[in-house]
Amino acid sequence: MTADEYLRSILAREAVDTSQTSPVIRAANALYPIINGWAGIYLNGIQPSGSFAKGTANHSGTDIDLFISLLSNTPDTLKEIYNTLFNALSQNGHSPRKQNVSINVKVNGYSVDLVPGRLQDPSGLDHSLYRRKADTWTKTNIHTHINYVASCGRTQETRVLKLWRNQNALDFPSFYLEMTVINALAGKNMGLSANVLHVLDYIKESFMSARVVDPANTNNIVSDDLTDTEKRIIKSKAEQALTASNWGQIVI
User: Fold this and answer.
1) InterPro entries recorded for this chain (predicted)?
2) Whole-model pTM?
């Protein structure tokens, strides 16, 4: 079995059911009554986002992001929006966990990240999100994120690198990882296994200093989401992977 065949067999094993009848979609749908009750007349819409929508999810790390779009005239502050959603989940029997821009809940064994945002303009798609760690806000456009990652042609490499991340228990935010893969492979087309090795080498050589900018908001520097200490841990694991004698020592 060649290296490419080995990686493709893993990706086949890790394929995710994205149909409307999939278990993870049903788990997410179970939260809709709570979200509807919380948002009331200010709800603009709910849609899957993140890895699930971009085609970069893996079965062993199956979770789903739900983006909750609120109308631009929603009166609460972004911080109040975030905290009242957390409270609504708690009051309805869940054990939510605050993250940065999302709130995580477990439903039927699946991990669901809820991301509440308020439209900046009634006729646009840009949203304002609360960033809990910095106690500030940021602008985002999930449609830009989904289209950018899904159309880049690097979803297979990204899925392999996400497995590597998860199997090494690395704190490497998914969007940051996706953008790193895209940037590392700009202009490259060497085959799946060679591309993955190139990304690992990029992480070893350039990751620490690489500036990653959000394609939906040039003021949002994605690479600032990790400290230098956190980046060094990722770099160290990439260096370790590059010394492996076979692919089974890198990803399984």
Assistant:
1) NT_sf
2) 0.89
